[in-house]
Amino acid sequence: MRLAKGWELFTAPWVLLGVVFSLISRFHASLMALSVAAFVVAVLVALFFRDPERSIGSGIVAAADGRIQEVHEERIVTFLNVHDVHVVRAPYSGRVVRVERFEGPRRPAFLEGAEKNAGVEIALETRWGEQVVHLIAGLVARRAVAWVKEGQNVEKGQRIGMIRFSSRVDIALPDGAAPTAHEGDRVKAGETMLAEPPEDRL
C-alpha cells in the first residue's frame, strides 16, 4: 500500500509510545493495554495517509475523495471525512502560477463560512485561464500542504497536495463548464468527472 509523504512523522510517535509501554508492561502488566492502543492508533494514522493509484477520468475531475457539498456554476465543493483519502489531485492540467498559504479560523469544514478557514490556494494557468484549487483546513484538520511550486506544470490527476485529517476542497470551474456532479454524490480524486469542459459542450 502506497502512503503519502510525511506519514512517518505522524506514525513514529505512536509506534515509539507503543514500544515504551510494552517494555514497561513487563513490570506493570496493566500498561500492556496502552501499548496495544498506541499501536492501533499508529496503524489508523498510517491508513489515513494511504495514497492509492487512480485511473484518470474524463472532463474536469474531482480533486479529492469525499462527498459533494455544494455545486455552483463557478465552483464545486467537496467535503472530506476523516476516513477518506486526503491526497489532493489536480482537476485539470495547467501551470502553477501561485501557491498561497493563508491564515484563518478553523470552523468545521461542512459549515457555512468555512471557505474563510486557514488553508492553501493553488492557482493553475489552464487553457481556460487561471483556475484555483482551494485546500481548506477544518476543525480536525490542522494543516493543508501543497506539493507543487510556482512554474511547475501539472497534469490532470497529478498529486498536488494533502490536507491532514478532516477538511474540504473547493475547485473553480471555467466559464461555460457544465457541472455533472450533484450535491451528496460520493467522488474519487482523479477518477470522477465533476464537470464537462466548455469545449465539450460545443
Write a structural description.
By secondary structure, the chain is α+β, with helices and mostly antiparallel strands. The protein folds into 2 domains: 42 residues; 142 residues, Glucose Permease (Domain IIA) (Distorted Sandwich), CATH 2.70.70.10. Helix content is 17%, strand content 34%. It is built from 2 helices and 14 strands, in the order ααββββββββββββββ. The strands form 3 sheets. The protein has an 8-stranded antiparallel β-sheet with strand order 9-5-6-7-11-3-2-13, with no helix packed on it. A hairpin with a 2-residue loop joins strand 6 and strand 7. The protein is elongated, with a radius of gyration of 19 Å.
Question: What descriptors fit this protein?
Answer:
202 residues; alpha+beta; Glucose Permease (Domain IIA); eight-stranded antiparallel β-sheet; 2 helices
Strand order of the largest sheet: 9-5-6-7-11-3-2-13
CATH architecture of the largest domain: Distorted Sandwich
Overall SS class? alpha+beta
Uncertain parts: none
Please give the count of helices: 2
Give the tally of β-strands: 14
